[in-house]
Amino acid sequence: MHLQQDIEQDGTPEVNLNAAGDYQQNRVNTGPEGSDYEFLSNEVDITNLVINYDLGWGSITSSTSQLDYNC
Questions:
Q1: 58 lies in which domain range?
Q2: What does the alpha-carbon distance between residue 67 and residue 47 come to, in Å, rounded to a whole number?
């Protein structure tokens, strides 16, 4: 099995609702160490291999996964 997902998002779902005054909000910076505004980009790859082996008197099952995540 292999799963790949690329996410590109303009705008962030996070806001600071504790800003002073009515109807005030601050955007949360999303980049490394808070360096970028309003854009998120993620790439996810998940690979899984399942192997079953019958020994006659029992069986062996192996499930191995690898995850690659880039942001």
A1: 2-70
A2: 7
